[in-house]
Amino acid sequence: MYMEMAPVMQLYNVFRNRWCGAYWASKGIRVIPTVNWGDESTFDFCFDGIEKGSAVAVSTYMASEHGNRKDQKEWFMAGYNEMRRRIEPEKIICYNTPFPEMQGGIVFVDYERSSWKYMSYERNFQKEGLDAFKVGGAPSRSCATIEPFLIGGSFKGGGSAYGGKWKQKTEFEKRLFGKSGEIKISYKRDGTKYETKIGDNGKAVRERHYTKAPNPKYHTNPHDHIINWLGPDEHPDPGPAINYFDGNVPEFKSRICHRSGEFKMIDDESFKTISDFKQSMRYHGEVVFMWAETTYGIFWDGKRYCIAQADGANEKWCDTSDEILEYMVGSDSLRDVITQVTVIERTI
Q1: Which domain holds residue 35?
Q2: Which of 66, 133, 321, 334 is most exposed, with minimal Cβ within 10 Å?
Q3: pLDDT (tens digit, 9 = 90+) per residue, 14-30?
Q4: Helix, strand, or coil here: 281?
Q5: Whether residues 257 and 283 fall in one domain
Q6: Does residue 145 sit within a domain?
Q7: Do 94 and 21 fall within a single domain?
Q8: Splitting the chain (348 residues) into consecutive groups of 10 residues, what average pLDDT does each group show?
Q9: How far, in Å, CA of 264 to CA of 51, rounded?
């Protein structure tokens, strides 16, 4: 139940939650209902249908600061305390780390240890079966503003689907902010040079990459990207590469003719989870990585993703991040090794 949902959808999802629980209970299955809430206006119905003194389940995942999400503890605790007052649960299963302020008989379930990063059996499901309920992959630009509660397959629910405005996680991402009109110069660990032009609002509007990666057939050295800022979270979303195959490269200049000092980035750019990788793809990041002594690259052409070896061999075009994860890097599925590959470069 996301805050961005229309009230009728919030009510409908509570109904579906209770209906499924009642049906399973009628078949002799022990049910622990998941309790969720929106703002205070949902308190009139979101706790209905749950027996007093029973065990319940909650999740702090969407309310906790992680990735580029801000902490939403104030919203969570308001609903949590109201839930305890109305239901008086005997036990509370908490999916993800509990907040220190949470009272009650809490049973902690580690989010990371139950996430897709560790679910090696997930790939054994038939694709047709998964398509019926999977949400995520590469949402269109339009759905980023129309259906925020569906973005990215956020199955854990609760709070704002956006989690507040985007914040930089790494030093490299700080290049996207600066003084109006300046051009910031930075280098990645492999020596790749970036020039980032800052717009009137202090955010990047255009960027030049001095590299052929991740695929020389589709990227000139240099090539440019328009930087868009999407959704209420204002997340950077680089457009497709602007190439100069004729060799006529325009000057990359600023109206105030100021270039900031050069600095080298040494961030750890590895993907910590499958969700981390999917987020990078969702915002059309370019990635260069190495596995089993072979270098691979991923980029977005404005419509689809392309993954291939760095020289263009074994090219595959994909519509979603899940299709990219099916790509074979040598004898391994990318899904199985994405958190182990050596990331040479990633833009998001």
Answers
A1: 7-114
A2: 133
A3: 999 999 999 999 998 99
A4: helix
A5: no
A6: no
A7: yes
A8: 86 94 91 92 94 92 72 89 95 91 90 54 42 39 37 54 65 84 83 88 91 74 90 81 92 65 62 83 89 92 91 91 93 92 86
A9: 58
